[in-house]
Amino acid sequence: MFTGIVECLGTVVEFTRLDTTAAGGNGASLAISGARSILDDCHLGDSIAINGTCLTVTEFTDDTFKVGLAPETLSRTNLGKLQPGDRVNLERALAAGHRFGGHFVQGHIDTTADIIEITPDANSIWYKLRVDDGKLMPYIIPKGFIAVDGTSLTVCDVNDEERWFTIMMIAYTQSHVVMPSKKVGDQVNIEVDMLGKYVEKVTTSILQGASTSDGSGTSSYIEKVVEKVLQKNK
User: Fold this and answer.
1) For range 118-142, the mean pLDDT
2) Catalytic residue check, 175
3) Residue 213 has pLDDT above 70, yes or no
4) What pLDDT sits at residue 117?
5) Residue 37 is among the residues annotated as catalytic for this protein
6) Distances (CA, A) of 210 to 200, 216, 218, 227, 230
């Protein structure tokens, strides 16, 4: 579990499609440097989010660490496009007892989005992003949470039909995350608010369980709920 509050910026040292070392596990791997500030309490097997993607540390030094990348991770995220020298957002898994400054972020990327507009506004920046998977738009709501490359941000405007939303980034955040280094056309990782997914699953399950083939069961269930509310308010 993460919060979406980026702790530091790391630098890609190497992306390897087939890493035959013990730490690579005969799969894809990613090596990151410039992470000294988050490695003082690191252990093998710990979770670190890279651009919002929860990954397992397989090797580390005082300043660098390596993670393995599964095929699912490469297909869902922008990590496979990283090049040596690219900067990335880094965040350790949340420690119990610490202040929770962002929102519930799992580090499980839902989809990617393309930056389609960048507009400065005083010392802030507007970003408009088009989501690749339109089925996720119901979970993106104005003033709701969203994680963009692992950064906890507030959604401003939403257009479901055209699959885009906007966020505004203040000056402080700009200086602590990778987003300002990106340009129109670049791809970012997106994780929608997990609470919305759970609410949908529970309510859908209830309504489907109450429904019949002609839909009368669902209507009956809703009528009972309304009746209880009205009785309580009498």
Assistant:
1) 96
2) no
3) no
4) 98
5) no
6) 15, 9, 5, 16, 21
Task: Please state the pTM of the whole predicted model.
Answer: 0.85
The angle at the Cα of 196, spanning 141 to 154, to the nearest 5 degrees, equals 40
Question: Has 154 been annotated as catalytic?
Answer: yes
69, two tokens = 């990348």
Q: Which of 35, 49, 54, 147 is catalytic?
A: 54
> Mean pLDDT, the chain, as a whole number?
91
In the chain, beta strands by DSSP E: 8-19, 27-33, 47-50, 53-60, 65-69, 87-92, 111-121, 124-131, 145-148, 151-159, 164-169, 187-192
- CA pair distance 132, 187, nearest whole angstrom: 10
Mean pLDDT of 202-215: 67
Check 108, 111, 210, 211 and give the catalytic one. 108
Element (DSSP H or E) covering residue 218: helix 216-232
Residue 218 has a pLDDT of 61
* Alpha-carbon 139 to chain mean position: 13
pLDDT grade for 212, boundaries at 50, 70 and 90: low
DSSP-derived secondary structure letter, 62:
S
Quick check: is 119 catalytic? no
**Is-catalytic flag, 2?**
yes
Query: Which of 37, 124, 154, 220 is labelled catalytic?
Result: 154
